[in-house]
Design brief:
Blueprint: E1 3-6, E2 9-14, E3 28-31, E4 36-38, E5 46-51, H1 58-70, E6 77-83, H2 87-97, E7 102-106, H3 112-117, E8 120-121, E9 133-137, E10 143-148, H4 158-167
Length: 168
């Protein structure tokens, strides 16, 4: 079990967060157009996987907008965001913010990230939602970067993630 905090209050996660060198676990998500997207669908592509509590919170919105902006010129990596938000919330958010280069997908049906990525918060005010994490997968879907943000209300380390992406 991993531990982190929400506004300095200890939070426990269900499961184990993957580490660099691991094969990325499978997932089954629903995109903003209500289509299924799995890890297999992204075979042969580098993936920047962002997991977070909700697109309707300020830090999550900043995370989505920042990675979208930073990766706007990169054509050989897929930017994938996921939470338990419904696809309709993603569609609304992306339309309002002009986000077109990212795949947004909900895990509300399968909870595959909770089970396979160990990101479901077990306790605290956001219990049941996902913690904030960034993983980068290479073309073979080996994890080359893994950050579980230790304070849920903090932004991820964009520079470190982008440096790993640029180096691979």
């Amino acid at each position: 079990m991993s531990h982190l905090t929400f506004k300095n209050t200890p939070i426990e996660l269900v499961g184990t967060f993957p580490k660099v060198g691991d094969k990325a676990p499978d997932f089954s998500l629903i995109d903003k157009n209500l289509r299924s997207i799995t890890r297999e669908d992204l075979t042969g592509k580098r993936v920047v996987l962002n997991i977070f509590p909700s697109v309707d919170t300020p830090v999550c919105a900043i995370q989505l907008k920042t990675f979208n902006q930073q990766l706007s010129g990169i054509t050989d990596a897929t930017l994938l965001f996921s939470s338990l938000d419904l696809p309709f919330a993603y569609r609304r958010f992306c339309a309002a913010e002009g986000i077109e280069n990212a795949i947004t997908a909900s895990d509300y049906q399968q909870l595959s990230l909770a089970e396979n990525y160990g990101v479901k918060m077990k306790n605290g005010p956001l219990a049941g939602l996902y913690a904030r994490a960034v993983l980068i997968l290479d073309e073979a879907h080996q994890i080359i970067y893994a950050e579980l943000v230790s304070e849920v209300t903090d932004e991820p380390n964009y520079e470190a993630a982008l440096a790993v992406l640029a180096a691979h």
